[in-house]
User: Fold this.
Amino acid sequence: PMAILYRPPRIAAVEGLLRKVRGAFAPEQVRAEGAGVRTLYRRLAAGGTVGILPDQKPRAGEGQFAPFFGRDALTMVLLPRLAARTGATVLFLFAERLPRGAGYRIHVLPAPGGIDDADPAVACRALNRGVEVCVERAFAQYQWHYKRYTRYDQPSPYDPPA
Assistant:
């Protein structure tokens, strides 16, 4: 069975609905916190499958800056660490919307070399390259609203000028 990692929504009342919708596809949903991450390690150690959205902005201390389309973007270190510590095979999967509501085309792509490197800088570069390859196949469909270019020690480039 598959386990997916998720971050609870800001509006607590919505979490139940999201869990119900996601539950139709994934047997186990684990929160992006200590106990949930331990569940992912156990699942992989037992030969199971996990799903992680690798391009969401990690919390402070849980990411590293690495190039993404030529610009440093805050990148999660969790996925490369999981791969390095468990030896799990990493695949990139995304659904491309087909024209005129004709459904979706599912793409499954191998991860770039280095995604399980012990050096987080190397691993995060590989992770971002894998996301770039996916984005390049359906550029207009990528969710560019993820605020990955924010630096915790600087003002957000997404905020309007004061």
Residues 58-150 form one domain. The beta strands are 2-6, 28-31, 49-51, 63-68, 71-76, 91-97, 104-110. The CA atoms of residues 58 and 139 lie 22 Å apart.
